[in-house]
């Protein structure tokens, strides 16, 4: 059952606020006056006083700094209760407003105006940053529409980067020292085992290394990057490079905007080497059993040469990606009669394998489009079978509106991704539904010609969940959309044929028959139909009982926060690290901070969590 609200929360429009913006407005003075009252009240632990600084339909989103969890509190009563419960625990202090380029007046839409600024603070455990947005009210006061707080570091335990990096000389011993470190030959043993060496596994390992936590990454493939290298040849990222940078080592300025999968694969291999991440390739975690008395994990790893190593670790991180272990071709009547080849998209490698054949691709989202484009470009007859409607957004127009529309968002050159990450996170998904609806409509207006052309071809299009475009689709189910980089025009031009509607009734000897009576001839049927339950990776290593105890990993809870990735999975010492490059960059630090805090005795695992 979806937790997404049926009605969007009200936006802070000037009409809803019954407010106007004075022509003569000292933005900095307003921000600093509000912040002075806010910081004094928060410091004194006066929840009621802090709450008076918010409009009724407001929110506070916290990532770890006050709650050790990801929480969104919507409405003045919920904010007041949260502050009453947590100010005395976190004891915030050392508040300081950032008087920088991000303090200013923004008008994201003609009827919405806010003063936007960043600030810093400390708690008993750590260092935090925040973002506040102030809106005008009927009596001329400016109050908070939203506040976002984020844990940035732990007191006394900084990342060993920059001025804190290793400053000793190493004459001729680096190679042997590095070999011993990778093999864990000395007294130091891993405290963390990470299963999977893709971007999610490497990002969290890099973060943990900077926090001086011994970590081992176990990768089943022979080379780092093979998780991208071994996928279909035409695969290319649909996210731009300035959104995708990895922790500590950004992509070079010569990098293409959209990264080919093979290029990314090589980069990941370079990243692991450059950041000295301890990786065992051609290795698998055979089993991981948790000791009920100590909560430690007894992990057995089988290496490429057949030998096994056993470690007892406090933390086990799955970084095995979206979806289940392997996508499966669905069971359809008549498959035994089909004279052609049926395969899942994760088994597909390159279009040339099917030269001269007639291909049907089942599915109409990202993988289906990429594979269909590849077939067309190799002169192969291809038809896409669309089972249900798809959300289409062009990367050209969509990213311009979504990422470059206001100060603090992702763009070429500025601001730094660390700033953009925090501005992006400062909008809770459910509170932001109204804004997302407007943004999605603006993109659809710009995409009107291609969307109309697709409809004329019979391709079914939707406007996303509650009309929010791609964003809620990504966060709620990680599918249902295509970010158009050219495939849509090929469909509109009839170069990729489309079959939309009807259900597959049966395979025939030479294709597919549908319940509407229509048939498609095919020599090859590729099912681009998803990868199943992510928890199957946990079940394969830890057993069915453990996987059943885990919270759902992806999808949204009642507050609009991700269910289980990057934080509490419901089992001590068990974590799931996942996401695109941007999510992994940002949230790898959140996960590393939790583990470091536990290792140093700062955090015992008790959270101020949503009571489901």
Outline the structure in words:
This protein is an alpha/beta fold. The chain has 3 domains: 141 residues, Nuclear Transport Factor 2, Chain: A, CATH 3.10.450.50; 217 residues, FAD/NAD(P)-binding domain (3-Layer(bba) Sandwich), CATH 3.50.50; 187 residues, FAD/NAD(P)-binding domain (3-Layer(bba) Sandwich), CATH 3.50.50.60. Helix content is 30%, strand content 23%. The chain is built from 19 helices and 25 strands. Strands 1, 2, 3, 4, 5, 6 and 7 form a 7-stranded mixed β-sheet that branches. Helix 6 runs parallel beside helix 19 and helix 11 runs antiparallel to helix 13. The longest helix has 19 residues. The chain is globular, with a radius of gyration of 26 Å. The model has no long low-confidence stretch (mean pLDDT 94). One of its GO terms (molecular function) is N,N-dimethylaniline monooxygenase activity. This is Flavin-containing monooxygenase. InterPro entries: Auxin_biosynth/cation_transpt (IPR050982), FAD/NAD-bd_sf (IPR036188), Flavin_mOase-like (IPR020946), NTF2-like_dom_sf (IPR032710). It holds the Pfam family FMO-like. It comes from Collybia nuda.
């Amino acid at each position: 059952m979806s937790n997404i609200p049926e009605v969007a929360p009200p936006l802070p429009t000037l009409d809803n606020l019954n407010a106007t913006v004075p022509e003569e407005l000292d933005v900095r003075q307003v921000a600093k006056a509000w912040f002075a009252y806010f910081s004094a009240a928060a410091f004194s632990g006066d929840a009621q006083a802090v709450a008076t600084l918010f409009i009724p339909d407001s929110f506070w989103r916290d990532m770890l700094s006050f709650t050790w969890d990801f929480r969104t509190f919507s409405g003045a009563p919920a904010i007041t209760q949260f502050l009453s419960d947590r100010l005395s625990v976190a004891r915030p202090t050392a508040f300081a407003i950032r008087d920088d380029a991000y303090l200013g007046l923004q008008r994201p839409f003609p009827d919405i105006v806010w003063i936007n600024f960043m600030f810093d603070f400390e708690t008993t455990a750590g260092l935090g940053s925040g973002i506040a947005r102030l809106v005008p009210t009927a009596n001329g006061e400016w109050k908070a529409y939203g506040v976002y707080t984020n844990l940035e570091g732990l007191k006394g335990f900084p990342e060993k980067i920059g001025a804190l990096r290793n400053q000793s000389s190493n004459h001729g011993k680096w190679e042997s020292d590095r070999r011993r470190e990778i093999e864990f030959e000395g007294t130091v043993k891993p405290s963390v085992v990470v299963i999977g060496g893709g971007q999610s596994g490497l990002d969290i390992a890099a973060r943990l290394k900077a926090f001086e936590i011994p970590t081992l990454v176990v990768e089943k493939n022979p080379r780092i990057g093979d998780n991208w290298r071994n996928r279909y040849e035409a695969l290319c990222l649909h996210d731009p490079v300035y959104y995708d940078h990895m922790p500590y080592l950004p992509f070079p300025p010569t990098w293409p905007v959209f990264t080919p999968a093979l290029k990314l694969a090589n980069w990941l291999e370079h990243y692991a080497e450059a950041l000295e991440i301890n990786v065992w390739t051609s290795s698998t975690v055979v089993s991981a059993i948790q000791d009920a008395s100590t909560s430690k994990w007894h992990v057995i790893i089988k290496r490429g040469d057949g030998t096994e190593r056993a470690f007892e670790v406090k933390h086990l991180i799955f970084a095995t990606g979206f979806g289940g272990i392997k996508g499966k071709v669905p069971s359809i009547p008549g498959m035994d009669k089909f004279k052609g080849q049926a395969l899942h998209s994760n088994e597909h490698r390159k279009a040339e394998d099917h030269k001269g054949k007639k291909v049907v691709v089942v599915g109409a989202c990202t993988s289906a489009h990429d594979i269909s484009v590849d077939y067309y470009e190799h002169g192969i007859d291809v038809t896409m079978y669309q089972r249900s409607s798809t959300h289409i957004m062009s990367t050209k127009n969509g990213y311009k509106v979504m990422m470059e529309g206001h100060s603090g968002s992702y763009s070429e050159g500025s601001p730094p991704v660390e700033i953009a990450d925090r501005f992006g996170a400062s909008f809770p998904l459910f509170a932001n539904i109204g804004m997302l609806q407007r943004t999605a409509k603006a993109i659809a207006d710009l995409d009107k010609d291609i969307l109309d052309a697709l409809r004329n071809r019979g391709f079914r299009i939707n406007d996303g969940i509650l009309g929010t475009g791609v964003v809620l689709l990504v966060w709620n189910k990680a599918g249902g959309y295509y970010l158009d980089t050219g495939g849509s025009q090929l469909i509109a031009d009839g170069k990729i044929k489309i079959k939309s509607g009807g259900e597959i009734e049966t395979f025939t000897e030479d294709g597919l028959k549908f319940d509407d009576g229509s048939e498609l001839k095919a020599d090859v049927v590729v099912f681009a139909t998803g990868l199943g339950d992510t928890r199957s990776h946990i079940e394969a290593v830890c057993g069915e009982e453990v996987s059943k105890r885990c919270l759902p990993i992806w999808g949204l809870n009642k507050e609009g926060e991700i269910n289980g990735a990057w934080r509490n999975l419901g089992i001590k010492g068990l974590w799931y690290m996942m996401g695109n490059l941007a999510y992994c960059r940002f949230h790898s630090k959140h996960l590393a901070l939790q583990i470091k805090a536990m290792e140093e005795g700062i955090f015992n695992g008790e959270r101020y969590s949503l009571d489901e």
